[in-house]
Specification:
Number of helices: 9
CATH class of one domain: Alpha Beta
Strand order of the largest sheet: 2-1-3-4
Radius of gyration: 18 Å
Bound molecules: zinc ion
Structural class: alpha/beta
Shape: globular
Helix content: 40-55%
Order of helices and strands: HEHEHEHEHHHHH
CATH topology of one domain: Rossmann fold
CATH superfamily of one domain: Creatininase
């Protein structure tokens, strides 16, 4: 079910069936100059919608959290960066509130890498409050499957761009991305304030020009299938 469909009375009845809560979490952030600022929210919301549509009584899709922690790309127009401490506190409160409401079994569908550290800490707080939380970082956790559809991970790269094109092609402008977007050579963490714009030239790395709506459709279908498989693994009964 989608939470918007339910009254309080209907919610009380549904909760007895112990539905799995789907909580999409994103951010508002520059995705190159070519893709929607809401990319990291649109994708987990769409994955959640597909999961819920596939098994309507097993999953309860909740309203998304659209603001996240976006320190690395805060220098680009359109990015809104929520500092880590209030973000962790807010997400912990949302998750713990859901536990109190009867939704202890939660799947957090995260769309944004900058949220990862904060969400790990928030999930630990929700676990202390009696919750069971699975965090799905689709672009990392399903990397093998993604590479079979479109290789080349990267911020605003082919995978994210393709997924947004499948959701709404009008929200992507491939002409506004460089012909050869730079790719990182290694996954290291590096923090320094003044050079932030230079580390993500044009707010992109990866190869967004390889994106197509067809690839995006395949990605979203695969992600929804994998989330359902994980849900059986973690919550078998
Ligand atoms: Zn993104």
């Amino acid at each position: 079910m989608h939470i918007a469909e339910l009254t309080s009375k209907e919610f009380s009845a549904l909760i007895k069936q112990r539905p799995l809560a789907l909580l999409p979490i994103g951010t508002l952030e520059a995705h190159g100059m070519h893709a929607s600022l809401a990319t990291d929210t649109l994708i987990p919301v769409e994955i959640g919608r597909r999961v819920e549509q596939a098994e309507r009584t097993r999953f309860l899709l909740l309203p998304e959290i659209p603001y996240g922690h976006s320190w690395d790309l805060a220098v680009f127009d359109g990015t809104v960066d929520i500092p880590a401490a209030p973000f962790i506190s807010y997400v912990s409160a949302v998750g713990s509130g859901l536990v109190k409401a009867g939704l202890s079994r939660q799947i957090w569908l995260n769309g944004h890498g900058g949220n990862n550290g904060a969400l790990t800490l928030a999930a630990e707080a929700v676990a202390e409050a009696g919750g069971q939380v699975v965090i799905v970082n689709w672009w990392m956790d399903f990397r093998q499957e993604i590479d079979a559809i479109t290789p080349g991970a990267g911020h605003a790269g082919a995978d994210e761009t393709a997924a947004v094109m499948a959701i709404n092609a009008a929200w992507v402008h491939l002409a506004d991305t460089p012909e050869h977007a730079p790719a990182r050579t290694a996954k290291v963490t590096y923090k320094e304030v003044s050079g932030r714009a230079g580390r993500f030239p044009g707010a992109v790395n990866g190869a967004p020009r390889e994106a197509t709506a067809e690839k995006g459709e395949a990605l979203l279908t695969m992600c929804a299938r994998r989330v359902r498989e994980l849900s059986v693994e973690f919550f078998p009964a």
